[in-house]
Amino acid sequence: MSKKIVCTNKKAYHDYSIEATIEAGVVLTGPEVKSLRGGRANLRDGYASIDRDEVWLHNVHISPYSHATNIQADPLRTRKLLLNRREIKKLTGKVKEKGFALIPTKIYFIPSGKIKIEIGLARGKKMYDKRADLKKKQSDREVEREYKIR
User: Fold this and answer.
1) Which residues are CB-contacts of 12 (< 8 A; sequence separation ≥ 6)?
2) CA 149, 13, 24 angle in degrees (round to 5)?
3) Which residue ranges make up each domain of the chain?
4) Whether pTM exceeds 0.85
5) Architecture of domain 4-125
6) Mean pLDDT of successive 10-residue segments in the chain (150 residues)?
7) What is the distance, to the nearest Å, from the Cα of residue 22 to the centroid of all Cα atoms in its chain?
8) Where are the alpha helices (DSSP H) in the chain?
């Protein structure tokens, strides 16, 4: 079961500690799907919110498809995420806790051709947490280099 990743949000893993992830469908128009097939999306400033038992995706930029004949939708429009009611209730309880946010981490195609988005339940990192992660990553790279040399 391979999936074709359209884009990832690397900044989310730097700015947040991801506690859990959940897969959701997303409501898109035809030209948006074509644009995603070309890999033209940006998750950097995106987030999700829960409003009246529905989950909405905000600030995710999907570039307009150049060969579309109909009127182009706004690239930053709010899109609905498709989740079970049980999953939405669980997320609502977690998001109400202090410091949690819903951040999109990946957009990908599953083998049946449908588009899925991975939403992370995230807690913001402090500056010292980010520094510690960078130091750990750098030391891991140095260890890997030493093993390659030997």
Assistant:
1) 18, 43, 103, 104, 105, 120, 122
2) 125
3) 4-125
4) no
5) Beta Barrel (2.40)
6) 84 85 90 86 89 91 79 81 91 84 91 91 82 87 85
7) 10
8) 10-15, 30-37, 85-96, 127-149
